[in-house]
Amino acid sequence: MPGPYQADFKKKSQAETIDELMDYLIKGGGLGLEIEKRLEELPSKYVALFVIEQERQDLIVSNIVKAFVKKKMPGIFVTLNKSGFELVEMLEKNGIDCSSLFVVDAISKGAGKPKKTAKISYAESPRDLTELQAQVGDFADIMPPGERFFVLDSLSTMLVYNAEKTVERFVHLLGEKLRASGFKVIFTIIKETRPETMDVLAQFADTVIKTSPQIKP
Q1: Is the full-model pTM beyond 0.85?
Q2: What are the structural domains, with CATH classification, of the chain?
Q3: How many CA atoms lie within 13 A of 20 on its CB side?
Q4: Number of C-alpha atoms within 13 angstroms, CB side, residue 53?
Q5: What is the distance, to the nearest Å, from the Cα of residue 141 to the centroid of all Cα atoms in its chain?
Q6: Which of 11, 16, 106, 147 is most open to solvent, judged by the fewest CB atoms within 10 Å of its CB?
């Protein structure tokens, strides 16, 4: 006699089952599970360098944030690739609660007068790393104690606007400061970045993470 789950399965057509599977994969299901597992293997506080493919950047970043938010952690996100509002919109479309996320937007101010909010601040430009670091510190100061996370996307974009030595110093100082404050720190970088540059930046991280290429969006 078929069990209840078998009966439910039979009610679905093959097309419906395939559609559900495709929806799961499109939303990064397999990739999300891999990222969660990799993050859970790390210590309570760390600096990690995520090496990602450019075509999967939004998907990977969304799943990194999702892994933290699922554990009810507040966080800070520095965006250099889209506006703060676009970032929040992208994350929410992926089912991520952004109510405890603070965003430092490093690109919108140069394009006009962005709307101010309590949880989105605006750096003058991706070149002003001193101000960017100060705004991260301001958010860190008002966040509740306990487990917290930090994500920056991406160092490859930052390298377009700044000298390599400047970016290296920024990663070293900010990463050390946030880790000492108990943050789980994620810097992302596009895998096509110059290998020599990536090797130097990797020295400032506790671990380098590369997602499995066979797990597609």
Answers
A1: no
A2: 13-210 (3.40.50.300)
A3: 7
A4: 11
A5: 20
A6: 11
Q: Quick one: CA dihedral 125, 128, 132, 138, positive or negative?
A: negative
Strand ranges for the chain from DSSP E: 46-52, 75-79, 101-105, 120-122, 148-153, 183-190, 207-210
| Spatial distance between the Cα atoms of 167 and 159, rounded to a whole number of angstroms | 7
Start-to-end Cα distance in the chain: 38
Is the alpha carbon torsion for 54, 196, 44, 100 positive or negative? Answer: negative
- Quick one: which of 75, 126, 131 has its CA closest to 103? 75
Which amino acid belongs to residue 168?
E
Angle at 184 between CA 105 and CA 115, to 5 degrees: 15
| Residue 115 pLDDT class (50, 70, 90 cuts) | confident
Question: Minimal CA–CA distance to 157: which of 129, 131, 138?
Answer: 129
140-170 pLDDT per residue, tens: 999 988 999 999 999 999 999 999 999 999 9
State the maximum Cα–Cα separation within the chain, in Å, rounded to a whole number. 69
User: Residue type for 88, please?
Assistant: V
Is the pLDDT at 113 greater than 80? The verdict is: no
